[in-house]
Amino acid sequence: MSKVFVLDTNKQPLNPIHSGRARMLLSQGKAAVFRRYPFTIIHKQEALNPQVEPLRVKLDPGAKATGLAVINDRTGEVVWVAQLQHRGFQIRDALTSRRQLRRSRRNSKTRYRKPRFLNRARHKGWLPLSLNSRVTNIMTWVKRLSSLCQITAISQELVRFDTQQMEDAEISGLGYQQGTLAGYEVREFLLEKWKRTCTYCGAKDTKLEIEHIQPRSKGGSNRVSNLCLACVPCNQKKGNQDIHEFLKGKPDLLKQILAQAKRPLADTASVNATRWNLYENLKKTGFPVEVGTGGLTKYNRTIRGLEKTHYWDAVCVGATTPEQLIVSGIKPLLITAKGHGTRQQCRTNKFGFPVRYCSRNKFHKGFQTGDIVKAVVTSGNKVGTYVGRVATRATGSFNISAKGGLIQGISHKYCKQIHKKDGCAYVA
To answer: CA–CA distance from 147 to each of 53, 150, 151, 166, 254 (Å)?
Structure first.
């Protein structure tokens, strides 16, 4: 099982403990629940000279999700893992909608809005809000973890793909081609680019081989723009045929493959820019920051027999990954970034016209939208127990986003707060 974080009476981190021991301390009244997500307890009695183990937090940043892990380098024990789902695309869509509504007002018979998008100075290291939200989400969790356990170092997957070396393998040197990581960078890049499917038949969840679109025997190169992925039957069937000859009966597929081969991985540039910004922010924490490539992460994960997930990738980031990892019973915490509400004064329809008023009061009946509550309904048509994020109303009739879906019209009398709003939703 994932360990439980522990704080002393002064809210200083102690060694994480097994969940069974945490239950015993809680039942004996020696500790109390300090935080639900991640689960943390606080001692009621002062500990005597505790020896606190140093831990390392590891990060595998991605465009849509980031893997988080806390590792004990000395013992190889995986203390805690999580997957953080970002909301960058939601922010992008919201900004696009706002921009469209504001621009439409300059041409409609409404109060004129002067354009102001050209008088904004961008500071050094500026990122679009949709990308910056990923950095701030990760930094929030690094700071949160450092307050709950004894973090002394950070590992980050900084460069996902070494595209300069992959672009022309001949100039990268024999050390790169024949070293331990030979092929890992290229293969991981191709898996992302071709969506982990066979280029020719679309087969999924099967063995995929690196395939030359233009065969080497007919002048093809090793550049990534000439590489794709193919299942074993398709690779053997194509052989050293030219792709125009192999797909002469499928002109649409041929056109699609040739276009995709020349197209760079869409998220690579933006994610790499985010990672460099994150790296600079991590250095400001004062902890030593270790970096590694995506190829090294995959190599570490493969030789240790771990499945492909964001949190196991985080465990395997960097050269300091222990040879033996203790991963039995680890259950990830699934985190989804939800934001901290909106400053809109009213809600609008799709045309930008106001349709309803937004209350200025954030708290209703002692609850705030975004709090995680437990509702035990004992009467009516919705009898049951529901746990999830709450959306409050002044009437006291709340909506709860539970694991099974949205439950509407739950009275505040049935609700009990178990975790204050912090901008995230959780699935343990």
So the answer is: 14, 8, 8, 40, 54
The pLDDT of residue 4 is above 70:
yes
Letter for the amino acid at 369?
T
Of the two residues 174 and 227, the one the predictor is more confident about is 227
Whether the predicted pLDDT of 314 surpasses 90 = yes
> How high is the pLDDT of residue 180?
46
Angle of helix 266-283 relative to helix 129-148, nearest 10 degrees, comes to 40
Instruction: State the residue for tokens 């522990």.
Output: 6
* Distance between CA atoms of residues 330 and 151, nearest Å: 19
Residue spans per domain, the chain: 5-43, 55-87+126-159+269-337, 163-264, 359-427
Query: What is the per-residue pLDDT for 288?
Result: 95
Instruction: Please say whether the beta carbons of 290 and 154 come within 8 A.
Output: yes
Residues 6+ apart with CB under 8 A from 408: 399
Q: Output 319 or 184, whichever has higher pLDDT.
A: 319
Model pLDDT for residues 373-403, shown as the tens digit of each residue? 999 999 888 899 999 999 998 899 999 998 8
Rounded distance between C-alpha atoms, residue 374 and residue 80, angstroms: 25
Q: Does residue 38 have a cis bond before it (omega within 30 degrees)? A: yes
Helices (H), 179-231: 184-193
Q: How many angstroms separate the first and last alpha carbons of the chain? A: 12
CB distance 61 to 268 below 8 Å = no
Euclidean distance between CA atoms 39 and 28, whole angstroms:
18
Tokens of 163: 């595209």
Q: Indicate the class that CATH gives domain 163-264.
A: mainly alpha
* pLDDT at residue 174 tops 60: no
Instruction: Write the class of the CATH domain 359-427.
Output: mainly beta
406: left (phi over 0), alpha (psi -120 to 50) or beta: beta
Reported as a single tens digit per residue, the pLDDT across 266-311 is: 556 667 678 888 999 999 999 999 998 888 898 899 999 999 899 9
Q: What is the mean pLDDT of residues 134-162?
A: 89
Cα-based distances in Å from 48 to 8, 45, 147, 148, 374: 10, 9, 20, 19, 36
Q: Cβ contacts of residue 324 below 8 Å, gap of 6+?
A: 76
The correct answer on CATH 3.30.420.10 for the domain covering 55-87+126-159+269-337 is yes
